[in-house]
Design goal:
Blueprint: H1 2-18, E1 37-45, H2 52-70, E2 77-85, H3 93-107, E3 116-118, H4 123-135, E4 139-142, E5 159-161, H5 166-179, E6 185-190, H6 193-205, E7 216-221, H7 230-247, E8 251-255, H8 258-271, E9 279-282, H9 292-300, E10 314-318, H10 324-337, H11 346-366, H12 384-393, E11 396-399, E12 402-405, E13 420-427, E14 434-442, E15 450-451, E16 475-477, E17 484-486, E18 491-492, E19 502-503, E20 508-509, E21 518-519, E22 524-525, E23 534-535, E24 540-541, E25 551-552, E26 557-558, E27 568-569, E28 574-575, E29 585-586, E30 610-613, E31 618-621, H13 625-628, E32 630-631, E33 640-641, E34 645-646, E35 661-662, E36 684-685, E37 691-692, E38 696-698, E39 705-707, H14 715-735, H15 745-767, H16 776-784, H17 805-836, H18 846-859, H19 861-869, E40 874-876, E41 882-884, H20 895-929, H21 933-938, H22 940-943, H23 953-970, H24 975-996, H25 1002-1027, H26 1035-1062, H27 1064-1092, H28 1094-1103, H29 1107-1125, H30 1130-1137, H31 1141-1147, H32 1156-1160, H33 1163-1176, H34 1179-1190
Parallel strand pairs: 1-2, 1-3, 3-4, 4-5, 6-7, 6-8, 8-9, 9-10
Antiparallel strand pairs: 10-13, 11-12, 13-14, 14-15, 16-17, 18-19, 20-21, 22-23, 24-25, 26-27, 28-29, 30-31, 32-33, 34-35, 36-37, 38-39, 40-41
Helix pairs in contact: 1-3, 2-11, 3-4, 5-6, 11-12, 14-17, 14-18, 15-19, 15-25, 15-26, 17-18, 17-20, 19-20, 19-23, 20-29, 23-24, 24-25, 25-26, 26-27, 27-34, 29-30
Length: 1191
């Protein structure tokens, strides 16, 4: 129904385009008005156009077949013949669709229900009709449709045919070839449905029939290729001739429709590959060559070849045995139409109609419930149609085309005819050459031929060799074929045959008499018929053997030599925009290319490791990344900032000198990974990423910026408040608990170890400021120690105030003053607390507070110096702009820097000039005023740790501290000079230390020596690490081991001092031993004084003793008089205990604090009393008393 709606438009198109005529055949509806039942058999026949003659032949045969069937029908019913229109183009799917539409119209809108359908004779038309017959469950039989697509019993259960399918026909051809003993052949087929179906079967199955793959040459041609233009047709002809000749085969299997077959025969005749000595084998498409019309064309020469050219050709076609039905058809045909000239395919058509009728008759016999009158009107769901199809496919009968048998129901190809084959040969007869059957064979049996006559091939013999004999390889027959001559230059012949020498193909070379083509080697080529191969010219190359031509070098490649196998890629820095060149163009000066083989000149740019400078319009080297701070790792891209360096986003990157700064922290300046990435770490900003963004503060270790919290604002006030009790506790521990005039050994050792440790960690902090590269882990440790250099960045001041250069510098500069004020405040606080606690809190004396403050200054003198000179401790980066090392977000120039200069001047005046001058003066007058108790208590921090002969050694320590702090100021960027200066300072200090041994406590001298050694060793390890380019071979571990060892030594010394302070009995034993040594020396000295006399002793004191020696002697005399004489007598006690008694006596000055009796006492009497006291007391008693006093 759906197809019928399309019929009118398609019908109109067909009428306009192809002039199709609808023919109503006599008897179409004959007898419809009679009483008998008519069983219609419809047929699709070409009754107009080029193939109207065979169409009319089919019609006559079908009418005779119906007449014969009606003779076998029961009375009251008759078969009738109905003709359907179909186009006369036997291969067009379009006209097949039109036939199907017309048929659908009959069956649908007109209610026409034939019992069966004959047709069509062409597979293309049948394929369009079979879906309709399947839809209306009508038997359909085709006499000639051979496509394998119709061998689908499940899809087309009502279709059967009296023609063998193509795949079986192709196998029949192979069986025939095998029977003739041929094992070499050429297969030629067209790529239409007929040619492809048969050709592919032959190609794939040939090996199973004695023709191996290498012995079967295959050539495919396009369908209707004879319609191509002359040039293309000539090319196809050359291919065909070359394929056949090179195959050495004399057997050609050719599968194509008749028009293409005649064109192939025409080319074969022109090329001399058909006729005597050749065997061409084909299928049913050749059968029409024997029809009168084509024989006439052969004789006229209009086909381009003659009957003689086909002699010996073999036709394999389905056998058409002559049976009683054949005779009956022929007799009826002659009687009705007066001629016996019948087309071969008429017999198969007769059998198709007869099979439909016989199926109806058999069904009526087997099923008595069905009568003829009910057949036309049966419902499609009655099941009778399926029974009729089953009966039809089960038929076996003698037909006009021979014995008819179908593949039985249940088989996948049920309804296909089981053929028997006839082998026919084109032979010359008295009435002209035509096809003569010479053998037959059954498909279902062993393929042995059953001869029906003599088999004579084109060579006149009963056998034909599959390969061509002739001249030996390298030779060919002369013109008359009587002798063999060597192949000419540029030709060759590979086998023994009669074939002429072939042209040497392009890519090969053939000398005279060649039996093979010599392939051109890589780097050479040749044209056709070449005698020798030529080297590839410059600009070309060939890597393959047998090259017909050399391939021009592609763009980006070149070849500057002849005969090369491959082209060379243009080197980096060159390019080539044209193909086939012998050289490459060079990029402009300083420019390069990213990779070899560059095509475009526009691809030239700055190479990796260089950058573009706009002022020069060229590229320059980026330099060492660690020095210049640039990463030039991408081709022709602006440089990126490397880790540890800084550059403002607004700074141009194509300037000759880039504005690159070197950061002091690699963590703050992580570098860029791409052009859009930030130079600074997260939440950092400013020059050298030295500031945290607003609302953020530096972490405790300074590695990152963290958001400010409410607790951040309390950090500074809490620190300031904690300084007050801390300084008070330090003062108490340092100045109380012992008599002011007693120099406790345990206190001396503890204070010395603490002082050495402070100096050590401050020195490490200074090391962190050196331009030297340190191992990462060790540098992290040194970064923590920066707080000892008054670097308060970890105190999170950014959350309290926006820190600028002046404020940051001022804060660090004011720390010593804050510490001094904090200590001084205890003068007031101690008195207030004493009153509040009713005398239970000690009162801190002024001289003691001075001593405590001096102790802090001495301990942190490196920090005092370093914080003072920090403003001038500048370093430079690649742009040579100096930056404050300790305040990296500020330049050492500009208004902000100038505003901080007054602070520096004040720091120099207070700390360098004022403090240094004060300490120098104190050291200068110490020998004179040391006997003064208040003075002595004030300057204990300077002298009490040292031996009397080295009382000046604190000036050496201060000088060393100042020199260490000044190294980075004097040599801001030169690593070698910094290292040499540091080493010189410590080696000189080491020499003085070893020479003087200044400390009173021996352990302190050892500790100081060890610490200096560790510092020098650490510097050496760092310098080696710097020289190695920062390659870590365990330097981290070495540095850490050295530092940890030094700190452990300090810790051990401090622990020993604390133990002495906490264990009085241990300290007493140690003091007792020391006291015994002192007493022995003192007793010997007194004995010598008595023996020498007053005059000699006086001379020694006046000429050899220093002021400090005299002071110590005086202090010792006061100490002995005070404790030995005691209160006997009272006047003497008062005189001895008076301040500066001995000095006043010897200078003749009165003591304002002494009594009148004391002023009047003669000096000689006092001296006599002292000497008497020392000499008259028993030695043992005196020794015991002295030991007790020292304890």
């Amino acid at each position: 129904e759906g197809l019928s709606s399309m019929h009118s438009s398609c019908q109109l198109a067909m009428h306009r385009s192809f002039g199709v005529r609808l023919c109503i055949v006599a008897g179409l509806f004959t007898g419809l008005c009679s009483a008998q039942v008519d069983l219609h058999i419809a047929a699709a026949l070409p009754l107009t156009g080029q193939i109207a003659i065979p169409g009319r032949g089919f019609q006559r045969a079908l009418e005779i077949s119906i007449e014969h069937l009606n003779q076998d029908l029961p009375p009251g019913s008759a078969f009738r013949f109905a003709s359907l229109p179909v186009c006369d183009d036997k291969t067009s799917n379009l006209f097949g669709a039109d036939c199907a539409l017309e048929f659908a119209d009959f069956c649908g809108s007109r209610g026409f229900r034939p019992i069966g359908v004959y047709g069509s004779g062409f597979s293309s038309v049948t394929l369009q009709m079979v879906p309709i017959t399947t839809r209306f469950k009508m038997l359909q039989c085709s006499p000639l449709s051979s496509t394998t697509e119709l061998s689908a019993a499940n899809s087309y259960p009502f279709f059967f045919r009296t023609a063998a399918p193509d795949d079986k026909r192709a196998i029949a051809i192979l069986r025939c070839v095998q029977s003739f003993g041929w094992d070499r052949a050429v297969l030629i087929y067209t790529t239409d449905k007929y040619g492809t179906t048969n050709g592919e079967v032959i190609k794939n199955q040939a090996v199973n029939y004695g023709i191996s793959g290498e012995r079967l040459a295959v050539l495919t041609l396009p369908p209707s290729f004879f319609l191509l233009d002359s040039a293309k047709l000539a090319d196809l002809e050359a291919q065909l001739l070359r394929k056949v000749r090179l195959s050495q085969a004399r057997v050609v299997i050719q599968i194509s429709l008749l028009d293409d077959s005649t064109a192939i025969f025409r080319m074969a005749a022109a090329g001399g590959i058909i006729g005597p000595g050749w065997a061409w084998v084909g299928g049913d498409a050749w059968a029409n060559l024997g029809t009168p019309a084509l024989l006439m064309q052969l004789d006229e020469g209009s086909l381009g070849f003659s009957r003689a050219d086909l002699l010996g050709s073999v036709l394999v076609i389905a056998q058409e045995d002559e049976t009683a039905a054949t005779v009956r058809l022929r007799d009826s045909y002659v009687a009705k139409y007066g001629t016996a000239n019948m087309e071969p395919f008429i017999y198969a058509g007769y059998d198709c109609v007869r099979a439909i009728g016989l199926a109806v008759i058999e069904l009526l016999k087997k099923n008595s419930s069905i009568n003829a009158s009910s057949l036309p009107g049966l419902s499609l769901n009655s099941g009778v149609q399926e029974q009729l199809a089953f009966v039809a496919k089960s038929l076996e009968f003698d037909g006009a085309s021979g014995f008819v048998q179908f593949e039985k129901p249940g088989s996948l190809s049920a309804g296909d005819r089981v053929p028997r084959y006839s082998v026919r040969m084109w032979e010359a007869m008295s009435d002209g050459a035509k096809w003569i059957e010479r053998a037959t064979f059954d498909e279902n049996r062993v393929p042995d031929l059953k001869p029906t006559g003599p088999i004579i091939f084109s060579n006149g013999l009963s056998t034909l060799p599959a390969e061509a004999p002739g001249c030996l390889a390298g030779k060919e027959l002369d013109a008359d074929g009587s002798s063999c001559l060597p192949c000419a230059e540029g030709t060759y012949k590979a086998t023994t045959s009669k074939l002429p020498c072939s042209r040497c193909l392009a890519g090969f070379a053939c000398a005279a008499g060649s039996s093979t083509m010599t392939p051109c080697g890589p780097g050479t080529n040749s044209t056709a018929e070449s005698v020798r191969c030529s080297p590839c010219p410059r600009g070309t190359a060939s890597s393959a053997a047998a090259a017909e031509f050399c391939i021009p070098c592609s763009m980006g490649f070149y070849q500057d030599h002849e005969g090369e196998q491959a082209c060379k890629a243009c080197e980096v820095g060159t390019f080539r925009e044209l193909a086939g060149q012998s050289s490459c163009a060079v990029c402009p000066p300083s420019l390069s290319t990213e990779y070899p083989g560059t095509v475009k000149g526009t691809s030239c740019g700055c190479a990796v490791g260089t950058r573009f400078v706009a002022a020069r319009n060229q590229c320059i080297a980026c330099g060492d990344t660690k020095v210049q701070g640039l990463q030039c790792d991408a081709f022709d891209k602006p440089p990126l900032v490397a880790t540890g360096f800084f550059m403002f986003e607004s700074s141009p990157r194509d300037a000759e000198i880039l504005d690159i700064f070197r950061c002091t922290s690699r963590t703050a300046c992580p570098g860029q990974t791409h052009l859009k990435s930030s130079v600074c770490a997260e939440n950092r900003t400013g020059l050298n990423c030295g500031r945290c963004e607003k609302g953020y503060q530096g972490s405790s270790d300074g590695s990152k910026c963290e958001a400010c919290s409410h607790q951040s604002n309390w950090g500074v006030p809490l620190l300031l408040l904690s300084l007050v009790p801390a300084s008070g506790l330090l003062h108490y521990l340092w100045n109380h608990g012992k008599a002011a005039h007693v120099e406790a050994i345990e206190g001396m050792l503890l204070s010395t170890s603490v002082g050495v440790t402070l100096i050590f960690v401050q020195t490490l902090g200074v090391f962190n400021r050196l331009s030297m590269a340190w191992p990462k882990a060790f540098k992290d440790i040194m970064s923590v120690l920066k707080i000892f250099l008054f670097d308060l960045s970890s105190l999170q001041l950014a959350c309290v105030s926006d820190m600028m250069l002046a404020s940051t510098y001022g804060v660090s500069l004011s720390i010593p003053i804050v510490l001094g004020l904090t200590v001084a405040s205890w003068w007031f606080l101690s008195r207030a607390l004493n009153v509040a606690m009713r005398g239970r809190f000690p009162v801190f004396k002024a001289e003691e507070l001075v001593n405590t403050l001096g102790l802090l200054v001495m301990g942190f003198y490196i920090s005092v110096c370093a914080s003072t000179v920090a403003l001038f401790d500048c370093y430079s980066g690649p742009n040579n702009k100096p930056v404050v090392r300790n305040i990296p977000f500020s330049l050492c120039s500009g208004d902000e820097y100038l505003h901080a200069i007054p602070l520096f001047v004040a720091g120099v005046l207070v700390y360098f000039i004022g403090l240094s001058a004060l300490m120098a003066y104190v050291l200068l007058v110490t020998p004179t005023y040391y006997e003064n108790a208040r003075f002595r208590n004030s300057v204990r921090f300077l002298v009490y740790k040292f031996r009397p002969s080295a009382w000046w050694y604190s000036s050496v320590l201060n000088l060393r501290s100042f020199a260490v702090a000044m190294v980075t100021v004097v040599f801001p960027d030169n690593v070698e000079k910094q290292w040499l200066s540091m080493v010189f300072v410590f080696v000189a200090s080491f020499w003085v230390q070893m020479r003087v041994q200044p400390y009173m406590e021996g352990y302190a001298n050892t500790l100081e020596t060890f610490e200096i050694f560790i510092l020098v060793a650490t510097l050496c390890v760092g310098f080696v690490y710097e020289a190695s380019g920062g390659t870590n071979f365990g330097y981290d571990d070495i540095c850490i081991i050295l530092v940890v060892g030094a700190l452990l030594a300090c810790a051990m010394a401090m622990a020993w001092g604390i133990r002495l302070a906490c264990k009085p009995q241990v300290a007493d034993i140690r003091r007792e031993k020391f006291a015994i040594v002192v007493i022995n020396h003192l007793l010997r000295a007194c004995q010598k004084v008595n023996e020498a006399g007053e005059e000699l002793v006086k001379e020694v004191f006046c000429t050899a003793a220093s002021q400090f020696d005299l002071t110590h002697a005086m202090l010792l005399s006061d100490f002995l008089l005070l404790h030995l004489v005691g209160e006997q007598p009272q006047q003497l006690f008062r005189k001895i205990s008076s301040q500066s008694f001995v000095l006043q006596r010897r200078s003749g000055m009165p003591d304002d604090n002494s009594t009148e009796a004391t002023q009047e006492a003669p000096a000689s009497a006092l001296d006599d009393e002292l000497v008497a006291t020392l000499t008259e007391a028993p030695a043992s008693a005196l020794e015991n008393e002295l030991v007790d006093m020292f304890n």
